[in-house]
Amino acid sequence: MTGPKDAAAGMAARQPDRVPSKDPQPSVDRIDDLARQILKGDILLPKFQREFVWSKPQVLEILDSIARNYPIGSVLLWQSRQELKSENKIADLEIELPRPDYPVNYLLDGQQRLSSLCGALYWHGRDPRSRWNIAYDLRKQSFFHLESLDDPPPHQVRMNRLADPAAYFRQLSVIESDDKEELKRRGEELFNRFKDYKIAVVTLGDMSIEDVAPIFERINSTGTPLTTVDLIRAATWTQDFDLVDEIEKILDGLSDKGFDGFDRKSLLRNISAAAGGDFSSGSIDGLRDHTGDQLRTATQDAGEAYKRAVDFLSTEIGVPSEAALPYANQLVVLAEMFRRLPHPNGDQSAAARNWFWRTGVTGYFRGWNTGMMAADLKAVADVAEGRRGDIPVPTIPIHHDLWVTQLFRMNNAQVKLFGLALATESPRDLLTGMRINTTSSLSWSNKKEFHHLFPRAFLKGRVNGADPNCLANIIYLSSESNKVIGGRAPSTYLKDAQVRLGNDYAAVLRSNLVSDEAYQAALRDDFETFVDLRARTIASKVANFAGW
To answer: What sign does the CA torsion over 154, 155, 160, 166 have?
Structure first.
């Protein structure tokens, strides 16, 4: 985009021939110079930066701001001879390696903006769906994402042509239309805008990573917010310890159990506890005061505890993945218990099972505050050290009406608990008697194997009490059988199924927590009596699991 003279001038302004003082050094640089310096390895993205998070519309918006000469904020660099781990790619583009023992500029603020510019100007990938497959429509005067790798019409210019002036102006020259002169003028204006657009740059001198980390946190507290994990990563990062890398190792180790998508902030609670703190946000914030060795040990201990806790959930409770877990913080507390108590005895395992069902059905974690965190941490320590036999949960009377009033809504904690409770019975299809794949159903990615025993179409206009979507009316059922049932009355399709399956049908009903009394109510098409009776059976099952 620039001639040799312009490029030389831009590089001279930023050439790192010496490390400046610690005082911030302001300058004004052409934005395309900054983009090229990133690709040449003169500006690097330190590993404690977050990954690229901007959406396609956000990428287009920053390009539009440049095209309109709107301000897009400043860039913060840290010039240093310290050799820090850095990304070797930006916007799907390879970054050149810096020369050894040569001062480079680490990008502290402006990653999303400069990544967007690098991707738009220099991308030559092969994925037509890439966020960097961008063009500018000279007629509409707007940026848009292409859906093909084929060349668009001449009045739609690929953004990566801007980095090659000869190719760019060659495309402008072949525009043939009544408005070609106006389109060429707009094309030249777009080129000059991206060539001449300047941005404020502030360069920090040779500071230590400890001094730079709080600056990084401060300037990244606005704009696209960083997560707690991002901030703690920045504050604790060293050449030998990267919090996000360590967390990813833990999650990779849980992938075979389906827990690799677990919330990273929840893991921080356990790392905090393993480091001698507690589950609270304040304690997590205190991780920045620990050494790399302390954090590595705490992270490894938390990771081993998670493996044991996930094994417990999958084998003892039947939780197939984190998607089926009623509350993420249930795993947090269990992991701390298994960190302190790697090999629980039978009574301790039973206490953990009871606690899981109690906290799930009572909605205990809906308001898990600092005081409750402290109480749970103490209780876990008491159980591990033999001072008590259970983890207490405040006694909240759970009436069987819960299963009548609670509607089937995906990702509701009590709905998930209901799904787990039914799964323990190895439910069978009401029409075919075949086993249902509850693991697939409990992924909660869809509802294809959760259906109504009393079809909604049948109940339409017939009931004034319980909602047809209440949990007491929900069963595991294949999509095929649900289509066969359609809007038929239970009194007809259940009788037909009983004739086909014969004496085995009682076992099929029990596997769906349908008692004989509830079945008789269904055969009378008595919806209100059915849901009341089935709710009692469900409540009894959950109470048994909870040790009530």
So the answer is: positive
| Residue 65 tokens, joined | 């701001």
Round to whole Å and give the CA distance between 232 and 268. 9
102: region left, alpha or beta (phi > 0 left; psi from -120 to 50 alpha): beta
Measured CA to CA, the distance from residue 440 to residue 447 in angstroms comes to 10
Q: Give dist(CA 262, CA 478) in Å, integer.
A: 28
- Return d(Cα 510, Cα 156) in angstroms, integer: 65
Closest by CA position to 263, among listed 228, 223, 224, 300: 228
CA 113, 115, 118: angle at the middle one, nearest 5?
110
62 and 91 Cβ atoms separated by less than 8 Å: no
Residue 468, classified by CB atoms within 10 Å of its CB into exposed (0-12), middle (13-18) or buried (19+), is buried
Contacts with 202 (C-beta within 8 Å, 6 or more apart), sequence order: 24, 25, 26, 27, 74, 75, 76, 77
Burial per residue of 24-63, b for 16 or more beta-carbon CB atoms within 10 angstroms, e otherwise: eeeeebbbbbbbbbbbebbbbbbbbbbebebeeeebbebb
Tokens of 476: 């595991």
Answer yes or no: are the C-beta atoms of 275 and 239 closer than 8 Å.
no
> Which ranges in 406-455 belong to alpha helices (H)?
413-423, 438-441
Residues with Cβ within 8 Å of 498's Cβ and at least 6 positions away in sequence, in order, are 505
For the packed helices 527-546 and 516-523, what is the interaxial angle rounded to 10 degrees? 160
Alpha-carbon span 80 to 100, nearest angstrom: 12
Distances (CA, A) of 498 to 431, 433, 501, 519: 8, 10, 5, 11
From residue 265, alpha-carbon distances to 54, 261, 363, 473, 523 in Å are: 21, 12, 20, 36, 50
pLDDT digit string (tens) for the chain, length 548 residues = 544 334 333 434 444 444 445 577 889 999 989 988 888 888 888 766 667 778 999 999 999 999 999 999 888 888 887 666 677 777 777 877 766 666 778 888 888 888 899 999 999 888 999 999 999 999 999 999 999 999 899 999 999 999 899 999 999 999 888 889 999 999 999 999 999 999 999 898 877 766 776 676 666 655 555 567 876 777 777 777 888 889 999 999 999 888 988 888 899 999 999 999 999 988 988 888 888 889 999 999 999 999 999 999 999 999 999 989 999 999 999 999 999 999 999 999 999 999 999 999 999 999 899 999 999 999 999 999 989 888 888 877 678 999 999 999 888 999 999 999 999 999 999 999 999 888 877 776 566 788 999 999 999 877 677 899 999 999 999 989 999 999 999 999 999 999 999 989 999 999 999 999 999 999 999 999 999 999 999 999 999 999 88
The dihedral over CA atoms of 129, 131, 133, 139, expressed in degrees to the nearest 10, equals 110
